[in-house]
Amino acid sequence: MHYKKAKKSNIDKDKLIYGRHPIMDSIHNGMSIDKIMLSQAVKGDYEKELRTLCKERNIPLHIVPKDRISNITQKNHQGVLGFLSYIEYQLIEDVFPLIYEKGEVPLVVVLDSITDVRNMGAIARSAEAMGAHALIVPFKKTAQINAEALKTSAGALSKIPVCRTASLGNVIDYLLMNGVQVVAADLRGKEMLDELDMTMPTAIVMGAEDEGVRPHILRKATSWFKIPMMGTTDSFNVSVAAGIVLYEAIRQRIKL
């Protein structure tokens, strides 16, 4: 008789918090939490308080079937499960003023729907190496920053600020109001990469390989650009593309 081999879980059990009081204590103590799962069955004052705290502390809250939590842990979770972060997430509103205080010209990378952890890690590695000041990622449709992402980044994810937001659109509005040009990679772009002036404050927006930057984010961008290509392949891997764009930014800034 042949038995199907169990699928290996990629969840780090040491990063789990379960139970209502431990979750609340972790939030109040300022622990860095990647996300919280709350069972649909949990209602009342606890649910309301948890929603309010998650909104205040910028913690993603996912309402899920109770079985989903039980499939992750058999411990007495009481309908709520938290995942501790591998890194300390920041807010762009806190990071941005510090860039100017250091007398530097802002260069940030906005990742729209990058869901592969290896791409996330590789982009972070290039961004940190090229002197970018921050990565900006959304709550949803983004790769989890886990042990694999950290390994792929060669530690860069623990060095470069990673700013998490519930709304990329709102963050882009914030950047535009602070004099930052927002340039989005898109195959329909009218400008070539080397035609951009990235010596000025710049936010580079990279989208998923299959869908690209989402339309509502594209509409907010200052300009759309494309990377010159000569072969028949229609696009680069997103981490490779990000590396090319970041190299062009640093080339202009140090006049290589």
Can you characterise this structure?
By secondary structure, this protein is an alpha/beta fold. It is built from nine helices and eleven strands. The chain has a seven-stranded parallel sheet, sandwiched between helices. Strands 1-4-2-3 form a four-stranded mixed sheet. Helix 5 (117-129) packs parallel to helix 9 (238-254). The longest helix is centred in the C-terminal third of the chain and has 17 residues, at 238-254. The radius of gyration is 20 Å and the shape is elongated. The N and C termini lie far apart (65 Å). Residues 1-9 have low confidence and may be disordered.
Topology:
Elements (H helix, E strand, L loop, with lengths): L15 E3 L1 H9 L4 E7 L5 H13 L3 E4 L1 H7 L7 E5 L7 H10 L5 E6 L4 H13 L4 E5 L8 H6 L9 E4 L2 H10 L3 E5 L5 E2 L9 E6 L7 H4 L4 E4 L11 H17 L2
Features:
alpha/beta, seven-stranded parallel β-sheet, four-stranded mixed β-sheet, 35% helix, disordered N terminus
Amino-to-carboxy terminus distance:
65 Å
Low-confidence stretches: 1-9
Largest sheet: 7 strands, parallel
Radius of gyration (Å): 20 Å
Brief characterization of the structure:
The chain has 256 residues and is an alpha/beta fold. The protein has 9 helices and 11 strands.
